[in-house]
């Protein structure tokens, strides 16, 4: 990241979106209801944090 001209805030937002997509995949591949709720909440949290990093 250093010396490449990448904005660290954009890199963090991109990584958070990757985590959100991973949480969505876990929601679809989990059978237990409690885990589905947990992964859904974590996915929503990652999307909100990514949006806050991009626009706030």
Brief write-up:
By secondary structure, this protein is an all-alpha fold. The chain has 2 helices and no strands.
Describe this structure in words.
Helix content is 80%, strand content 0%. With 56 residues, it is an all-alpha fold. Helix 1 (8-29) packs antiparallel against helix 2. The longest helix is centred in the C-terminal third of the chain and has 23 residues, at 33-55. The model has no long low-confidence stretch (mean pLDDT 90).
Largest sheet: none
In one word, what is the shape?
elongated
Helix content, binned percent: over 70%
Radius of gyration: 14 Å
Strand content: under 5%
* Series of secondary-structure elements, N-terminal to C-terminal: HH
Distance between the termini: 22 Å
Count of individual beta strands: 0
Kindly report the oligomeric state of this protein: single chain
The total count of helices amounts to 2
> Stretches where pLDDT falls below 50 for ≥5 residues?
none
Write down the overall mean pLDDT.
Answer: 90
Structural classification: mainly alpha
């Amino acid at each position: 990241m250093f010396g490449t001209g990448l904005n660290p805030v954009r890199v963090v937002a991109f990584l958070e979106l990757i985590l959100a997509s991973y949480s969505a995949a876990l929601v679809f591949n989990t059978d237990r209801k409690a885990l589905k709720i947990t992964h859904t909440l974590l996915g929503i949290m990652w999307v909100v944090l990514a949006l806050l990093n991009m626009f706030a």
